[in-house]
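REVIEWER CHECKLIST
Item 1: Sequence provided? yes
Item 2: Single chain? yes
Item 3: Sequence as submitted:
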Amino acid sequence: MKDLYTFDANPDKAANTYQKVRQAYNSFFNELRIPFLVAKAHSGDMGGSRSHEYHIVTASGEDTVISCSSCNLAYNEEVVLIDHNSKMRKESAADLGPYQSWFGISKDRCHLVEVVVPQSLDFRGDHGLERKEVQVNTFLIRSQYPDLDLSIERPLHTFVEYWEKQQSPVSGRDWPAARSSPRLTLLHDYRVPQEYVRCRESNSPTTTLYNRLFAIIGSRLHQDSTSLDLARRQDGDECFRCKERSLKVQQAVELAHTFDLGQRYSKPLDAKFIIKPVEQGKGNALTQQDRCRASPARQGYEHFYMGCHGIGISRIIAAVAESLADAQGLIWPRAMAPYEAVILATKAHEAVAKELWDLLTRQDPCSAPVDAVLDDRDKGFGWKLKDADLLGFPIVIILGATFTNSELCEVSVRRLGTCQNVSVAHIRDYIARTLERL
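Item 4: Structure as written out by the authors:
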């Protein structure tokens, strides 16, 4: 991991530094020519006011990134976006039913949350609107009720059994004397009719268990009136920002992360800098915040505004290798490949191959030299072809049957899906143009 820590005197300078680091990271990943996404992220335990993640899309990724092809919005699924001012889509209750319940239980087992959502919704797919099963957005639920223990597999059964034991004579406890009373909160998706929520006992598929639940709860039932979209995002769903049905949900691997920490750590650690007084008559270009801090009345010390940034170097290598590889082997981007090109030749053309290598690698005032390697190992030509594909050279130059017949080199670029026959006289220019695309 390549780490970077920044220290600034005020929020404006810290924000400027944060943007400079983000620009540097964008330039770095653009130079690699890999398909990366910059997503708004949840700061988590690290804290701070904002953070961004840099991802490469791959099916084996552990993160879920949601992006919009219309307005370029991108964010980690862990980020909770709630638009209280938007008008929810009005959909017919008859078209949305039936409904399903999701349960969560608090860590102290005193609070049960029931979330009611439609079982399926329409999402835009390749062939128009498609009906898909709805999953609950647990990150949003957790943001509303942070005391929930999402590790419990059967929250409803756990809640009922726990409080039935508390009520039993064997336990020797009485609810009024207990540490806390059991309570149930009903939270429903905006598409679920109020009538359905009011009749939970009759609508429940587990009637016996619900009877036991309401026997425990009694009047301790709270209905959360917040109108939210509680369904987990899916491909073709409506974008939070532009309202187009153009969201794409992808698995991705995190390659880098930037955090704007503010004074999250400088205050607890009492990390300060000295405030210097403003020099009179020198016309220094200071911000209003600087002048306020540097006034004679404010001379002293101030806590730093910090930032924390990191790029996972070894993770980038592994993620790029997995993301770009095909059935033949690795495919390295130009900036990461050990060589830009490899030259392979049959026995009959070994002398020409050495001359070609010299032509490509020599200094030239008109074009930069190509970082090429000549495979002169004592192996068969077919073995060298397969090994070049396996190792993932960006460009493979072949002097074989085509060169024997017409004195043309085969230039293969698997990442671009091209294979062109090029004369020795034009090959340096052709490779230079090709490398610009890699």
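Item 5: Key structural point noted by reviewer: Residues 11-32 form the longest helix (22 residues).
Item 6: Recommendation: ____
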